[in-house]
Amino acid sequence: MTSSRRPPLLTDLGAAVLALVLVALAGRLGLWQYDAWQAHRVNEARDLTELAPVPLDDVMGNDDPFPAPDVGRPVEVSGEWLDGGFWVADRAYDGRDGYWAVNPLQVGDEAVLVVRGWAPEPDAQLLAVDGSADLTGWLQPPDGSLAVDDDPTDDVFPEIRVADAVQRVDVDLYSAYVVDQAVGAGLERAELASLPEPGTFTGVRNLLYAFEWWIFGAFAAFIWWRWRRDATHPDETPVTDAAVPADREQATQPVDG
Asked: What would the DSSP string read from start to end of 66-83?
């Protein structure tokens, strides 16, 4: 035999309300951690291009690696132009492919590469620059895709790489380059190659916490569902020998010969 059993109404409602509160709380806390993860990434990927310029030495030294959080920061540079300028291929401007004009600028005992502008074709006259310069430009990291230079003997490079450029000058180079905000004569303004991007693991702890809270909420809902299923499941009552009628029991007794 089976008998249906059900928890009292207040107990049933109380369990449902508790489950809803726990699920809602876990969902809200998970969303809070998710928003924190996004905020960390947005903060790291902030656009610095409109900030007030600062001296290059305030951002990095000649021997320092490129400061990733300062991609696109305006910096002030003063120095003397050096020989050793070159072109960088496959640089776009207004939807057209062209070349960047790059010249080294000596700053103290070191030099920094400066992108002076864009041209549709390489022109040796556009690289001819000398004298002193006081400029403001956006700080950029060197390229690193390891593109192959098809002709190492010309003045056209596939990328801006310090290892390639240092062979053309007699001083150390910064591990960065600057895109000049002022356009050189005969050139168009060079478009920024890159702006800050968040790292892969930026704020990952907050993201993991978000998933942890959501899993907790799902577990709370599962516990409530399992409890209610067990609480309302029909009660199976096993049939015993005592429940067998006496006349049937007598009928099953063997008859003596």
From this structure: P-GGGTT-EEEEEEEE-S
| Number of independent structural domains in the chain | 2
**Can you give the pLDDT of all 257 residues of the chain as single tens digits?**
455 566 676 676 777 788 888 888 888 888 887 777 666 555 555 567 777 889 999 999 888 998 888 888 899 999 999 999 999 999 988 889 999 999 999 998 899 999 999 999 999 899 989 899 999 999 988 887 677 777 777 889 988 888 888 888 889 999 999 999 888 888 998 877 655 555 555 456 777 777 888 888 888 888 878 877 777 765 555 555 555 555 555 555 555 54
CATH number, residue 95 = 2.40.50
Is 209 found in the same domain as 158? no
**Which residue is listed with tokens 């956006």?**
138
Domain span at 212: 2-41+202-251
